Amino acid sequence: MTSSCPIPPSSTSGSDAPVRFTLRQLNLMVRDTIDMQLPDQYWVEAELSECREHGGHCYMELIEKDSRSNTPVARASAKCWRQTWQMVQPYFERTTGQPLRAGIKVLLQVYAQFHEAFGFSWIVSDIDPTYTIGDMARRRQEIIRLLKEEGVFDLQHELCLPLFCQRIAVISAQGAAGYGDFCQQLVNNNYGLQFHVTLFPAVMQGEQVEQSVIAALNSIYSDSRTCPATASAGFPMPPFDCVVIIRGGGATADLSGFDTLALAENVAQFPLPVITGIGHDRDESILDMVAHTRVKTPTAAAAFLIDNLKRVLDRLTDAQQHMSVAVTRNIAARKTQVANLSTLIPTLAMRTLNNGRHRIELIENQLPAAIERRLTDHKHRLERLTLLLQGFDPQLLLSRGYSITLHNGRSVRDSSLLQPGDEIETRVEKGSFKAIVK
Protein backbone atom coordinates (compact mmCIF):
# COMPACT_ATOMS: atom_id res chain seq x y z
CA MET A 1 0.00 0.00 0.00
CA THR A 2 1.42 3.39 -1.02
CA SER A 3 1.68 5.87 1.82
CA SER A 4 -0.03 9.22 1.44
CA CYS A 5 2.51 10.72 3.82
CA PRO A 6 5.93 11.31 2.18
CA ILE A 7 8.81 10.64 4.54
CA PRO A 8 11.37 13.46 4.52
CA PRO A 9 15.08 12.70 4.11
CA SER A 10 16.94 11.79 7.27
CA SER A 11 19.14 14.88 6.99
CA THR A 12 19.34 17.88 4.69
CA SER A 13 23.06 18.39 5.35
CA GLY A 14 24.38 14.86 5.79
CA SER A 15 24.71 15.38 9.53
CA ASP A 16 23.40 13.03 12.30
CA ALA A 17 20.45 15.34 13.20
CA PRO A 18 17.21 13.40 14.19
CA VAL A 19 14.36 13.00 11.71
CA ARG A 20 11.64 15.64 12.20
CA PHE A 21 7.95 15.43 11.23
CA THR A 22 5.16 17.89 11.15
CA LEU A 23 2.14 16.95 13.27
CA ARG A 24 0.05 16.38 10.19
CA GLN A 25 2.72 14.11 8.72
CA LEU A 26 2.84 12.08 11.92
CA ASN A 27 -0.95 11.83 12.12
CA LEU A 28 -1.12 10.72 8.51
CA MET A 29 1.37 7.96 9.33
CA VAL A 30 -0.89 6.87 12.22
CA ARG A 31 -3.92 6.93 9.91
CA ASP A 32 -2.16 4.80 7.31
CA THR A 33 -0.99 2.37 9.97
CA ILE A 34 -4.50 1.98 11.35
CA ASP A 35 -5.92 1.56 7.87
CA MET A 36 -3.45 -1.22 7.21
CA GLN A 37 -3.63 -2.96 10.60
CA LEU A 38 -7.41 -2.61 11.23
CA PRO A 39 -8.98 -2.84 7.78
CA ASP A 40 -12.11 -4.77 8.86
CA GLN A 41 -15.27 -4.05 10.81
CA TYR A 42 -15.65 -5.45 14.35
CA TRP A 43 -18.50 -6.21 16.73
CA VAL A 44 -17.77 -4.71 20.14
CA GLU A 45 -19.66 -4.98 23.45
CA ALA A 46 -19.70 -1.80 25.53
CA GLU A 47 -21.74 0.38 27.85
CA LEU A 48 -22.78 3.85 26.81
CA SER A 49 -21.49 6.44 29.27
CA GLU A 50 -22.68 9.28 27.04
CA CYS A 51 -24.93 9.47 23.97
CA ARG A 52 -25.91 12.72 22.26
CA GLU A 53 -27.30 13.70 18.87
CA HIS A 54 -26.06 16.76 17.05
CA GLY A 55 -26.56 17.83 13.47
CA GLY A 56 -28.18 14.51 12.64
CA HIS A 57 -25.12 12.57 13.81
CA CYS A 58 -24.83 10.58 17.05
CA TYR A 59 -21.80 10.96 19.28
CA MET A 60 -21.13 8.23 21.86
CA GLU A 61 -18.69 7.59 24.66
CA LEU A 62 -18.07 3.88 25.21
CA ILE A 63 -16.92 2.36 28.46
CA GLU A 64 -16.11 -1.08 29.86
CA LYS A 65 -16.26 -1.74 33.62
CA ASP A 66 -14.63 -4.34 35.78
CA SER A 67 -17.29 -6.91 36.70
CA ARG A 68 -16.18 -7.04 40.34
CA SER A 69 -15.22 -3.45 41.21
CA ASN A 70 -17.43 -1.71 38.62
CA THR A 71 -14.56 0.65 37.82
CA PRO A 72 -13.81 1.62 34.18
CA VAL A 73 -11.08 -0.40 32.53
CA ALA A 74 -11.44 0.95 28.98
CA ARG A 75 -12.86 4.03 27.22
CA ALA A 76 -13.33 5.11 23.63
CA SER A 77 -15.25 7.57 21.48
CA ALA A 78 -17.62 6.44 18.73
CA LYS A 79 -19.61 8.24 16.06
CA CYS A 80 -22.57 7.23 13.96
CA TRP A 81 -22.91 9.42 10.88
CA ARG A 82 -26.26 10.82 9.82
CA GLN A 83 -26.93 8.38 6.97
CA THR A 84 -26.37 5.35 9.20
CA TRP A 85 -28.00 6.90 12.28
CA GLN A 86 -31.27 7.57 10.44
CA MET A 87 -31.56 3.83 9.79
CA VAL A 88 -30.31 2.21 12.98
CA GLN A 89 -31.96 4.56 15.51
CA PRO A 90 -35.66 3.85 14.64
CA TYR A 91 -35.01 0.13 14.34
CA PHE A 92 -33.26 0.00 17.71
CA GLU A 93 -36.05 1.89 19.47
CA ARG A 94 -38.84 -0.19 17.88
CA THR A 95 -37.09 -3.41 18.82
CA THR A 96 -35.96 -2.57 22.35
CA GLY A 97 -38.70 -0.15 23.37
CA GLN A 98 -36.19 2.45 24.51
CA PRO A 99 -33.74 4.92 23.00
CA LEU A 100 -30.01 4.73 23.07
CA ARG A 101 -29.02 6.44 26.30
CA ALA A 102 -26.32 6.45 28.90
CA GLY A 103 -26.22 3.41 31.13
CA ILE A 104 -27.36 0.72 28.68
CA LYS A 105 -25.20 -1.96 27.14
CA VAL A 106 -24.93 -2.23 23.34
CA LEU A 107 -23.38 -4.40 20.67
CA LEU A 108 -21.96 -2.15 17.94
CA GLN A 109 -20.41 -2.91 14.58
CA VAL A 110 -17.53 -0.48 14.18
CA TYR A 111 -14.48 0.24 12.11
CA ALA A 112 -11.46 2.27 13.08
CA GLN A 113 -10.95 5.76 11.73
CA PHE A 114 -8.17 8.21 12.43
CA HIS A 115 -8.43 11.74 11.08
CA GLU A 116 -5.35 13.87 11.08
CA ALA A 117 -7.33 16.88 12.33
CA PHE A 118 -9.79 15.22 14.74
CA GLY A 119 -7.95 12.17 16.04
CA PHE A 120 -9.09 8.58 16.52
CA SER A 121 -12.67 7.35 16.71
CA TRP A 122 -14.68 4.21 16.17
CA ILE A 123 -17.27 4.66 13.43
CA VAL A 124 -20.55 2.84 14.05
CA SER A 125 -21.98 1.09 11.03
CA ASP A 126 -24.64 -1.05 12.75
CA ILE A 127 -26.23 -1.77 16.15
CA ASP A 128 -27.64 -5.14 17.22
CA PRO A 129 -30.74 -4.43 19.37
CA THR A 130 -31.17 -8.08 20.38
CA TYR A 131 -28.04 -7.82 22.52
CA THR A 132 -29.51 -4.85 24.39
CA ILE A 133 -32.83 -6.66 24.78
CA GLY A 134 -31.00 -9.58 26.36
CA ASP A 135 -29.14 -7.27 28.71
CA MET A 136 -32.38 -5.46 29.57
CA ALA A 137 -34.05 -8.78 30.29
CA ARG A 138 -31.19 -9.81 32.55
CA ARG A 139 -31.39 -6.52 34.40
CA ARG A 140 -35.17 -6.82 34.75
CA GLN A 141 -34.85 -10.34 36.13
CA GLU A 142 -32.16 -9.19 38.54
CA ILE A 143 -34.39 -6.35 39.79
CA ILE A 144 -37.34 -8.72 40.19
CA ARG A 145 -35.12 -11.17 42.08
CA LEU A 146 -33.92 -8.43 44.44
CA LEU A 147 -37.49 -7.21 45.08
CA LYS A 148 -38.62 -10.72 45.94
CA GLU A 149 -35.61 -11.28 48.20
CA GLU A 150 -36.46 -8.04 50.02
CA GLY A 151 -40.02 -9.30 50.46
CA VAL A 152 -41.61 -6.24 48.84
CA PHE A 153 -42.60 -7.55 45.39
CA ASP A 154 -46.19 -8.43 46.42
CA LEU A 155 -46.80 -5.81 49.14
CA GLN A 156 -49.08 -3.69 46.94
CA HIS A 157 -51.19 -6.72 46.06
CA GLU A 158 -51.94 -7.21 49.76
CA LEU A 159 -53.55 -3.76 50.04
CA CYS A 160 -57.31 -3.31 49.60
CA LEU A 161 -58.71 -0.57 47.43
CA PRO A 162 -61.12 1.46 49.61
CA LEU A 163 -64.82 0.98 48.83
CA PHE A 164 -65.33 4.73 48.50
CA CYS A 165 -62.19 5.38 46.44
CA GLN A 166 -62.83 9.00 45.46
CA ARG A 167 -59.79 11.00 46.66
CA ILE A 168 -57.20 10.41 43.96
CA ALA A 169 -53.54 11.51 43.99
CA VAL A 170 -52.30 11.59 40.38
CA ILE A 171 -48.68 11.51 39.27
CA SER A 172 -48.46 12.77 35.70
CA ALA A 173 -46.80 15.39 33.54
CA GLN A 174 -48.23 18.90 33.99
CA GLY A 175 -50.59 19.66 31.10
CA ALA A 176 -50.24 16.19 29.57
CA ALA A 177 -53.06 15.08 27.28
CA GLY A 178 -53.33 11.80 29.17
CA TYR A 179 -53.96 13.62 32.45
CA GLY A 180 -56.63 15.74 30.78
CA ASP A 181 -58.35 12.65 29.36
CA PHE A 182 -58.22 11.00 32.79
CA CYS A 183 -59.87 13.97 34.55
CA GLN A 184 -62.46 14.46 31.81
CA GLN A 185 -63.55 10.83 31.98
CA LEU A 186 -63.91 10.98 35.77
CA VAL A 187 -65.97 14.19 35.63
CA ASN A 188 -68.21 13.06 32.76
CA ASN A 189 -69.00 9.57 34.05
CA ASN A 190 -72.50 8.27 33.30
CA TYR A 191 -73.47 7.72 36.95
CA GLY A 192 -72.91 11.18 38.43
CA LEU A 193 -70.15 9.88 40.71
CA GLN A 194 -67.91 12.46 42.35
CA PHE A 195 -64.11 12.26 42.45
CA HIS A 196 -61.52 14.62 43.94
CA VAL A 197 -58.25 14.68 41.99
CA THR A 198 -54.94 16.23 43.12
CA LEU A 199 -52.07 16.40 40.63
CA PHE A 200 -48.45 15.84 41.68
CA PRO A 201 -46.45 16.82 38.56
CA ALA A 202 -43.56 14.62 37.45
CA VAL A 203 -41.40 13.97 34.43
CA MET A 204 -42.82 10.93 32.65
CA GLN A 205 -40.20 10.27 29.98
CA GLY A 206 -36.46 10.28 29.70
CA GLU A 207 -33.76 9.74 32.26
CA GLN A 208 -35.45 11.86 34.98
CA VAL A 209 -38.51 9.58 35.34
CA GLU A 210 -37.21 7.64 38.34
CA GLN A 211 -36.11 10.66 40.39
CA SER A 212 -39.19 12.73 39.51
CA VAL A 213 -41.81 10.05 40.26
CA ILE A 214 -40.12 9.16 43.56
CA ALA A 215 -40.19 12.85 44.52
CA ALA A 216 -43.93 12.96 43.74
CA LEU A 217 -44.55 9.87 45.89
CA ASN A 218 -42.66 11.53 48.75
CA SER A 219 -44.84 14.63 48.40
CA ILE A 220 -48.01 12.52 48.57
CA TYR A 221 -46.71 10.75 51.65
CA SER A 222 -45.80 14.08 53.29
CA ASP A 223 -49.29 15.46 52.58
CA SER A 224 -50.76 12.34 54.17
CA ARG A 225 -48.74 12.82 57.37
CA THR A 226 -49.65 16.50 57.69
CA CYS A 227 -53.35 16.05 56.93
CA PRO A 228 -55.52 17.88 59.56
CA ALA A 229 -57.64 14.75 59.89
CA THR A 230 -54.55 12.90 61.06
CA ALA A 231 -53.90 15.32 63.89
CA SER A 232 -57.52 15.38 65.06
CA ALA A 233 -58.00 11.63 64.92
CA GLY A 234 -54.70 10.82 66.62
CA PHE A 235 -53.72 8.19 64.04
CA PRO A 236 -52.71 8.21 60.34
CA MET A 237 -55.67 8.98 58.11
CA PRO A 238 -54.34 10.02 54.69
CA PRO A 239 -56.27 12.52 52.56
CA PHE A 240 -56.02 10.18 49.56
CA ASP A 241 -57.54 6.79 48.86
CA CYS A 242 -55.09 5.73 46.15
CA VAL A 243 -52.31 6.91 43.83
CA VAL A 244 -52.61 6.84 40.03
CA ILE A 245 -49.46 7.00 37.87
CA ILE A 246 -50.44 7.83 34.29
CA ARG A 247 -48.67 8.74 31.10
CA GLY A 248 -50.46 9.49 27.85
CA GLY A 249 -48.76 9.82 24.50
CA GLY A 250 -45.05 9.99 23.95
CA ALA A 251 -42.75 7.42 22.45
CA THR A 252 -42.75 3.86 23.68
CA ALA A 253 -38.98 4.18 23.74
CA ASP A 254 -39.26 6.57 26.69
CA LEU A 255 -40.64 3.91 29.05
CA SER A 256 -37.31 2.58 30.26
CA GLY A 257 -37.44 4.89 33.28
CA PHE A 258 -40.20 2.71 34.76
CA ASP A 259 -37.89 -0.34 34.91
CA THR A 260 -35.64 0.75 37.79
CA LEU A 261 -35.04 -0.83 41.18
CA ALA A 262 -35.39 2.39 43.21
CA LEU A 263 -38.75 3.31 41.68
CA ALA A 264 -40.07 -0.24 42.07
CA GLU A 265 -39.03 -0.31 45.76
CA ASN A 266 -40.77 3.00 46.45
CA VAL A 267 -44.01 1.97 44.76
CA ALA A 268 -44.02 -1.55 46.26
CA GLN A 269 -43.67 -0.18 49.81
CA PHE A 270 -46.05 2.77 49.41
CA PRO A 271 -48.87 2.61 52.01
CA LEU A 272 -51.66 3.44 49.51
CA PRO A 273 -52.77 1.31 46.53
CA VAL A 274 -50.96 2.41 43.37
CA ILE A 275 -52.66 2.12 39.96
CA THR A 276 -50.52 2.43 36.81
CA GLY A 277 -51.66 3.47 33.36
CA ILE A 278 -48.51 4.49 31.53
CA GLY A 279 -49.84 3.83 28.05
CA HIS A 280 -48.18 0.91 26.35
CA ASP A 281 -49.05 -2.56 25.06
CA ARG A 282 -45.66 -4.23 25.36
CA ASP A 283 -44.61 -6.50 28.18
CA GLU A 284 -45.30 -5.20 31.66
CA SER A 285 -42.77 -2.84 33.13
CA ILE A 286 -41.42 -3.62 36.58
CA LEU A 287 -43.49 -0.69 37.87
CA ASP A 288 -46.62 -2.44 36.52
CA MET A 289 -45.59 -5.70 38.18
CA VAL A 290 -45.29 -4.26 41.68
CA ALA A 291 -48.30 -1.92 41.43
CA HIS A 292 -51.66 -2.79 43.02
CA THR A 293 -53.45 -2.61 39.63
CA ARG A 294 -52.10 -2.19 36.12
CA VAL A 295 -54.14 -0.81 33.20
CA LYS A 296 -52.95 0.28 29.77
CA THR A 297 -53.94 3.93 29.48
CA PRO A 298 -55.02 6.93 31.59
CA THR A 299 -58.62 6.57 30.36
CA ALA A 300 -58.53 2.89 31.39
CA ALA A 301 -57.38 3.98 34.86
CA ALA A 302 -60.34 6.38 35.08
CA ALA A 303 -62.71 3.64 33.91
CA PHE A 304 -61.32 1.29 36.57
CA LEU A 305 -62.01 3.84 39.34
CA ILE A 306 -65.49 4.56 37.99
CA ASP A 307 -66.34 0.85 37.81
CA ASN A 308 -65.06 0.31 41.35
CA LEU A 309 -67.24 3.10 42.77
CA LYS A 310 -70.20 2.00 40.63
CA ARG A 311 -70.01 -1.47 42.16
CA VAL A 312 -70.15 0.12 45.61
CA LEU A 313 -73.14 2.23 44.52
CA ASP A 314 -74.90 -0.90 43.22
CA ARG A 315 -74.27 -2.68 46.52
CA LEU A 316 -75.68 0.25 48.45
CA THR A 317 -78.70 0.44 46.15
CA ASP A 318 -79.35 -3.29 46.54
CA ALA A 319 -78.98 -3.02 50.31
CA GLN A 320 -81.36 -0.07 50.36
CA GLN A 321 -83.93 -2.01 48.35
CA HIS A 322 -83.59 -5.06 50.59
CA MET A 323 -83.98 -2.88 53.68
CA SER A 324 -87.03 -1.15 52.20
CA VAL A 325 -88.70 -4.47 51.38
CA ALA A 326 -87.85 -5.88 54.82
CA VAL A 327 -89.20 -2.80 56.63
CA THR A 328 -92.38 -2.83 54.51
CA ARG A 329 -92.96 -6.49 55.29
CA ASN A 330 -92.29 -5.94 58.99
CA ILE A 331 -94.73 -3.02 59.15
CA ALA A 332 -97.43 -5.06 57.36
CA ALA A 333 -96.90 -7.96 59.78
CA ARG A 334 -97.17 -5.62 62.77
CA LYS A 335 -100.36 -4.09 61.37
CA THR A 336 -101.86 -7.56 60.99
CA GLN A 337 -100.91 -8.39 64.57
CA VAL A 338 -102.49 -5.16 65.83
CA ALA A 339 -105.66 -5.84 63.84
CA ASN A 340 -105.87 -9.36 65.23
CA LEU A 341 -105.31 -8.09 68.76
CA SER A 342 -107.98 -5.41 68.33
CA THR A 343 -110.58 -8.08 67.54
CA LEU A 344 -109.42 -10.36 70.33
CA ILE A 345 -109.23 -7.74 73.10
CA PRO A 346 -113.05 -7.49 73.76
CA THR A 347 -113.41 -11.26 73.88
CA LEU A 348 -110.37 -11.60 76.11
CA ALA A 349 -111.62 -8.83 78.39
CA MET A 350 -115.07 -10.40 78.72
CA ARG A 351 -113.54 -13.79 79.38
CA THR A 352 -111.27 -12.27 82.04
CA LEU A 353 -114.21 -10.50 83.70
CA ASN A 354 -116.30 -13.71 83.72
CA ASN A 355 -113.42 -15.63 85.22
CA GLY A 356 -113.05 -12.94 87.87
CA ARG A 357 -116.73 -13.01 88.76
CA HIS A 358 -116.69 -16.79 89.01
CA ARG A 359 -113.67 -16.69 91.34
CA ILE A 360 -115.39 -14.06 93.53
CA GLU A 361 -118.53 -16.20 93.76
CA LEU A 362 -116.47 -19.22 94.73
CA ILE A 363 -114.67 -17.19 97.39
CA GLU A 364 -117.97 -15.82 98.71
CA ASN A 365 -119.37 -19.33 98.99
CA GLN A 366 -116.29 -20.74 100.63
CA LEU A 367 -115.56 -17.83 103.00
CA PRO A 368 -118.08 -18.56 105.86
CA ALA A 369 -117.04 -22.20 106.16
CA ALA A 370 -113.38 -21.20 106.04
CA ILE A 371 -113.92 -18.59 108.77
CA GLU A 372 -115.79 -21.10 110.92
CA ARG A 373 -113.00 -23.64 110.56
CA ARG A 374 -110.41 -21.04 111.41
CA LEU A 375 -112.28 -19.94 114.55
CA THR A 376 -112.77 -23.53 115.71
CA ASP A 377 -109.10 -24.26 115.26
CA HIS A 378 -108.10 -21.19 117.29
CA LYS A 379 -110.62 -22.08 120.04
CA HIS A 380 -109.19 -25.56 120.41
CA ARG A 381 -105.69 -24.20 120.51
CA LEU A 382 -106.66 -21.71 123.22
CA GLU A 383 -108.16 -24.47 125.33
CA ARG A 384 -104.97 -26.53 125.03
CA LEU A 385 -102.86 -23.58 126.10
CA THR A 386 -105.16 -22.92 129.07
CA LEU A 387 -104.78 -26.49 130.29
CA LEU A 388 -101.05 -26.29 129.82
CA LEU A 389 -100.81 -23.10 131.88
CA GLN A 390 -102.96 -24.57 134.62
CA GLY A 391 -100.42 -27.37 135.00
CA PHE A 392 -97.75 -24.76 135.90
CA ASP A 393 -99.93 -22.96 138.53
CA PRO A 394 -98.03 -22.92 141.97
CA GLN A 395 -101.31 -23.09 143.87
CA LEU A 396 -101.97 -26.47 142.34
CA LEU A 397 -98.67 -27.72 143.76
CA LEU A 398 -99.46 -26.33 147.23
CA SER A 399 -102.81 -28.12 147.18
CA ARG A 400 -100.95 -31.37 146.72
CA GLY A 401 -99.01 -30.86 150.03
CA TYR A 402 -95.96 -29.06 148.69
CA SER A 403 -94.68 -25.80 150.20
CA ILE A 404 -92.60 -22.92 148.85
CA THR A 405 -89.90 -21.18 150.94
CA LEU A 406 -89.12 -17.58 150.07
CA HIS A 407 -86.23 -15.38 151.09
CA ASN A 408 -86.49 -11.73 150.21
CA GLY A 409 -89.40 -12.62 147.89
CA ARG A 410 -87.50 -15.25 145.95
CA SER A 411 -87.86 -19.01 146.17
CA VAL A 412 -85.08 -20.82 148.02
CA ARG A 413 -83.55 -23.58 145.90
CA ASP A 414 -80.23 -24.06 147.80
CA SER A 415 -80.17 -24.01 151.66
CA SER A 416 -76.43 -23.30 151.68
CA LEU A 417 -77.20 -19.85 150.37
CA LEU A 418 -79.06 -18.93 153.58
CA GLN A 419 -77.20 -17.36 156.51
CA PRO A 420 -78.03 -17.64 160.20
CA GLY A 421 -80.47 -14.92 161.17
CA ASP A 422 -82.07 -14.77 157.67
CA GLU A 423 -85.81 -14.44 157.79
CA ILE A 424 -87.62 -16.84 155.49
CA GLU A 425 -91.31 -17.28 154.61
CA THR A 426 -92.92 -20.60 153.91
CA ARG A 427 -96.19 -20.83 151.99
CA VAL A 428 -98.51 -23.81 152.24
CA GLU A 429 -101.94 -24.56 150.73
CA LYS A 430 -103.66 -22.59 153.44
CA GLY A 431 -101.64 -19.66 154.61
CA SER A 432 -97.92 -18.98 155.30
CA PHE A 433 -95.53 -18.58 158.20
CA LYS A 434 -92.12 -17.02 158.85
CA ALA A 435 -89.03 -18.40 160.51
CA ILE A 436 -85.50 -17.38 161.43
CA VAL A 437 -82.57 -19.46 160.17
CA LYS A 438 -80.27 -20.75 162.98
Task: Indicate the topology.
Blueprint: H1 23-37, E1 41-54, E2 57-65, E3 72-80, H2 82-96, E4 105-115, E5 119-127, H3 129-150, E6 167-172, H4 177-187, E7 196-201, H5 209-225, H6 228-233, E8 242-246, H7 261-268, E9 274-277, H8 286-290, E10 293-294, H9 298-391, H10 394-399, E11 404-407, E12 410-411, E13 423-427, E14 432-436
Parallel strand pairs: 3-5, 6-7, 6-8, 8-9, 9-10
Antiparallel strand pairs: 1-2, 1-4, 2-3, 4-5, 11-12, 11-13, 13-14
What does this structure look like?
- This protein is α/β, with parallel strands linked by helices and 438 residues long.
- The protein has ten helices and 14 strands.
- Helix 8 (286-290) links the parallel strand 9 and strand 10 (293-294).
- Helix 4 crosses helix 9 and helix 5 (209-225) runs parallel beside helix 7.
- The longest helix is centred in the C-terminal third of the chain and has 94 residues, at 298-391.
- The termini are far apart.
